[in-house]
Each structure stands twice: as C-alpha cells, then as structure tokens.
Design goal:
Mean pLDDT: 78
Number of domains: 2
Shape: globular
Structural class: alpha/beta
Low-confidence stretches: 7-30, 173-182, 383-394
Radius of gyration: 22 Å
Oligomer: single chain
Length: 394
C-alpha cells in the first residue's frame, strides 16, 4: 500500500504508498508538533550523494516558470490593470479563452512549468501550476486540502490511496459567478466533483507551501517506488521529510521502502514514528500488525489488531470484502448493504461500483445496476488512465 497526494493504498493488502492522505485538524494551533528525525534516514543504503539516485528536482524549481513561459505571461499581463482583470487573465492562462480542460494524468507528478506546457497533470501538479501562475500575476493564492475519505487507484500490482488539493485565490467579487464559492473567493479545482461530494460535511483547510512541496516529493517518491527505482524514491522521501517532518504519508511510504530493501528494524522504527503522527491511520496500523506478526511477536500484533477492529467500520476495503463474502454465500441483500457502505467511505474505488452493479443485477434491480454502470463510465471519463491495469506497474 502506498499513499500520495491526488494519486496509494493496497487492495488485497499489497504494498501501498501514501500520497498525501492525512487527517488535518481545523484548529491547527492545537496540533502536536513533530520535528526532523535524521536518525530515521539512512543515506548509506541508497547511494546518496552521487549518481542518478540523488538527482531530484530542486525545491526552488518546483514552482519556477521557464523564461519562455514567463515571457508569454508577462506580455499578457501588460494588457491588464486591476486585480479583477488579473484574475480573469489567470483563468485564461489556465483554461484558455475557450475554457479548455486540462487532461488528468495521475501517473506522474510534474513541476509547475512542465504541467503548464503539457497541459496535463494530476490534481497536485495542476494545483502547484495554478499557484505558480497566480504568483506571476501578483495574486493572493493559497493551497487547500480536503481532509476526506480516500480515493482509490490501481496501478499494476500496486493500489494507491490519494487525497485532494486545490487552490483558492482571495478576492471579494468576480464577474463570473460560476467560479466563486460562498466566501467570494475564486476556487481553481481540477476535480470539483471530489470536493463537492464533501461540501457541507467536510471543510477544506489551508496548507502551507512547505506542505504542498512535501506532497510533491512524496508523490515523486511513490512514483519512483512503483517503478522500482529505490534510490530515487528514497531521495524524494528524504526531501519531503526535510520540508515537512509532520507529514505522515512520507514516513509510511519510507517504511515500505525500507521493508523492500530488507531493513526490517528501520522500517518498524519509521512506521512507529508515522503512527505517532497519525495514531488512527488504518493502513499504518495494519502494516504494523503484519510486520509484528511475521516476526512471531503475536502479543504485540494482537494489540494492533484490537485497534484495527475499532477503526474497521471506516475502511471501505473492509466493507468491500465483507460484501464479497456475502455475495459468494448468496446473501445478495447483505452484500448490497456492505457495498453501499463502502461507496460512502471511498471515492474512485472501481471494484465497489462493479460489485454493486453485479449485486443489483443478481437481484433483478436493473435501474440501480444501470446507475452503477453510469458511475463507472463517469470514473473512466474523468480519469481515463486511473484504473488501467498494467503488468509493469506504470
């Protein structure tokens, strides 16, 4: 299982990376502070300091725009005056005069200029691009995250779990009401369906640029991990940990990397630290239980099993598996209840919608089966590459 931002958790409990799924508190001042942990980093195992493994994108280059891109934007900026006009220019720069959408590509997290030039990216790449463009136009922009239930994505033998970020440009009024939220701010969101699903239930929270950059490096590390590039994965995780020591997904993913290279004791130490940051993280607890169980430390593993049982009702995979078992036993109504519970807890989990479709068909409920088929088509349309299965992983 792997976690990243706008992109990994494991179905069937395979290795997962964390791409920016964290439980953010509304009252940030009361959140515990976590400091750098250089003792948990082991450069010597990954050949850091020389060779391709150490070559990662520099932090100051993530939001930088090329001279060519900046020149184009500056030329357009000469034709604008007040802030409202610059906001319209920002929207034009992102979407074009015809409001063309960007392509959603979940496989690679890219820096701002590359995302702008290729007109495609995942939600974190697109949010960072929007932030860089807003900076160029002198606008007050802020990254936001939705502390939400996970989005699922299958990539080869890995299953990823993702969060969601977007950008808010602070203004009091704009002429285009379709781009304004209730507070009067311009919301630049490349997956508004995800955000709207939690409107009124979960409030987005502003996050620092350091945290946004940590998400970037965590994603890049997860992507390198999936591609089998251990040194590159480590270098990116290391950078993420330096930028934001309290970012849980980085430490969880680093523990997975340590396990891959046979450093079990170090993996356990890192995972314990991750669970100090997020004590109720279901996937982290499951990983720790499995790690202890493989070492024959059954009493310790049992303690984690108790904690997992208390949290299982909030795990979509848990309900999916219960539903699958009920379906196999012929309890179609019970299976439907479990699958419906799973859909309420996760976004983008294709297998659940497929299971619901089949269960509804088996009960003769054609209308609901068709509705699930539509959900699957919407997911495929929104993210054409999101659930593609590849034997090579990427």
């Amino acid at each position: 299982m792997i976690e990243r931002m706008c992109a990994v958790n494991a179905i069937h409990r395979r290795a997962v990376l964390a791409i920016s799924v964290v439980c953010l508190l509304a009252d940030c001042a009361s959140a515990p502070q976590f400091h750098a942990r250089p003792d948990l980093l082991h450069d010597e195992w990954f050949g850091q300091g020389a060779g391709p493994a150490a070559r990662i994108i520099a932090p100051d280059a993530v939001l930088a725009l090329s001279a060519e891109t900046a020149a184009v934007l500056d030329t357009a900026l000469l034709r604008t005056g007040n802030a409202s006009q610059r906001v319209e220019l920002l929207v034009d720069a992102i979407y074009g005069p015809q409001r063309h959408e960007f392509d959603y590509l979940s496989a690679v997290t890219t820096p701002a200029d590359q995302t702008f030039r290729q007109h495609a990216g995942n939600c974190l790449s697109l949010a960072l691009m929007s932030l860089a463009l807003a900076d160029r136009f002198g606008l007050d922009a802020q990254l936001h995250e939705v502390p939400m239930v996970p989005m699922w994505e299958r990539q080869g033998k890995f299953d990823l779990i993702s969060g969601h970020v977007f950008v808010v440009v602070r203004r009091s009024r704009f002429p285009d009401s379709r781009t304004i939220d209730l507070a009067g701010d311009l919301v630049i969101d490349f997956d508004p369906v995800v955000r709207s699903a939690y409107s009124g239930r979960i409030r987005s929270v502003p996050i620092s640029r350091a945290r946004g950059l940590a998400m970037f490096y965590n994603n890049r590390g997860a992507e390198a991990y999936v591609a089998g590039k251990n040194g590159e994965a480590y270098a990116n995780y290391r950078q993420a940990a330096e930028l934001e020591p309290a970012f849980y997904p980085t430490w969880f993913n680093l523990s997975r990397l340590y396990l891959r290279v046979g450093r079990t004791a170090a993996a356990e130490a890192v995972l314990r630290h991750a669970l100090e940051i997020d004590p109720k993280n279901y996937n982290g607890l499951q990983t720790m239980q499995g790690l202890l169980g493989k070492q024959g430390r059954d009493a310790e593993a049992a303690l984690y099993a108790q904690r997992i049982a208390q949290l299982s009702d909030d795990d979509p995979y848990h309900h999916y598996m219960i539903g699958a078992e009920k379906f196999a036993q012929g309890d179609l109504r019970g299976a439907i209840r479990s699958f419906e519970r799973a859909t309420s807890l996760g976004v983008g989990f294709v297998e659940i919608h497929e299971a619901l479709r089949d269960a509804y068909r088996a009960t003769g409920d054609v209308d609901r089966a068709i509705l699930q088929k539509r959900h699957l088509l919407e997911l495929a349309k929104a993210r054409p590459d999101r659930n593609a299965l590849s034997p090579t992983g990427r």
